[in-house]
Amino acid sequence: MNLEFEIAGGDFTKAGYASSQVKKMLKQLGVEAHCIKNIVIALYEAEVNVVAHAYEGQILVHIESDKITTKIIDKGPGIPDIEQAMQEGYSTASKKVREMGFGAGMGLPNIKKNTDKLQIQSKVDEGTTVEMVNYF
Amino acid sequence: MKVSDLIEQLNLEVISGEKGLDREVTGAYVSDLLSDVMGNARESQMWITLQVHQNVMAIASLKDLAAVILVKGLRPHESTIRHSNDEQIPILSTTDSTFEISGKLFELLKKEGCLA
Ligand SMILES: Nc1ncnc2c1ncn2[C@@H]1O[C@H](COP(=O)(O)OP(=O)(O)OP(=O)(O)O)[C@@H](O)[C@H]1O
Ligand SMILES: [Mg+2]
């Protein structure tokens, strides 16, 4: 089964909307509560990263009998050094974004902690794809 | 303990989300960093913060938090209030500082045996 959602970059008023749609659907599908919690954390962080750092994006959810694969694909500036970006506390967020409480540099570490498999591909000036797998 | 039980005892003002006042409370999380709350707060906890914009409610809803307490008399944005009513998660306000309200809430939940 497949689900698809759009993410608008730059608009913090809608940040989290796609994640909440996915959460509702996973609940309806009867996915186990603990699994939903983990996915929601990881998905929200990936969604907000598109809003905060990229221009636009898409969420693709693929559900199989034993796992959920979630892909967040964006068009944006890309991440020059993924290893550095993964470090807790590393952030390029603007002062304004930080004042809102974003930009702690905890998003990618949160994604890592809450997924069983994580793959990040990025091309500077093109965009970033985050692919994560959660087993039931 | 329910959110409504805390209101009287801690002298909190209910700003919005009245329909969520019977949510069960099992603890609290204190932070103004959104990713910190996203990663570490748990379902049914109160969230004590000074952030007043609507992303607070997006997180409260995604995490199934019991309610949000704004400190130092801070007022939420209109959009935050709307979101709180839609999601039926209360926003409560206190004139206390984060330190004071956290201490009081901790004592109360502990006394009532409500800390999960
Ligand atoms: N989709 C993306 N496109 C471009 N850069 C990104 C993307 N996601 C992350 N980054 C880069 O990686 C850094 C670290 O990301 P991470 O999510 O860990 O922290 P943050 O978004 O800065 O803050 P927080 O998530 O704690 O609010 C970002 O500051 C940004 O430089
Ligand atoms: Mg982030």
Account of the protein in words:
- With 136 residues, chain A is an alpha+beta fold.
- Chain A is 36% helix and 29% strand.
- Chain A has a single domain (2-135), classed as Heat Shock Protein 90 (2-Layer Sandwich).
- Chain A has helices at 17-28, 33-53, 82-85, 95-99, 107-113, and strands spanning 2-8, 56-63, 67-75, 117-123, 127-135.
- In chain A, a hairpin with a 3-residue loop joins strand 2 (56-63) and strand 3.
- The longest helix of chain A is centred in the N-terminal third of the chain and has 21 residues, at 33-53.
- Chain A starts with a strand and ends with a strand.
- Chain B has one domain: 3-Layer(aba) Sandwich (Udp-n-acetylmuramoylalanyl-d-glutamate--2,6- Diaminopimelate Ligase, Chain: A, domain 1).
- In chain B, strands 1-5-4-3-2 form a 5-stranded mixed beta sheet, sandwiched between helices.
- With 116 residues, chain B is α/β, with parallel strands linked by helices.
- The radius of gyration of chain B is 12 Å and the shape is globular.
- The longest helix of chain B has 14 residues, at 98-111.
- Classes of the chains: A alpha+beta (136), B alpha/beta (116).
- Residues 45, 49-50, 52-54, 74, 76-79, 85, 90-93, 102-108, 128 of chain A line the site of adenosine-5'-triphosphate.
- Chain B: Pfam families: DRTGG.
- Chain B: InterPro entries: DRTGG, Ser_kin/Pase_Hpr-like_N_sf.
- Chain B: This is DRTGG domain-containing protein.
- Chain B: Homohexamer.
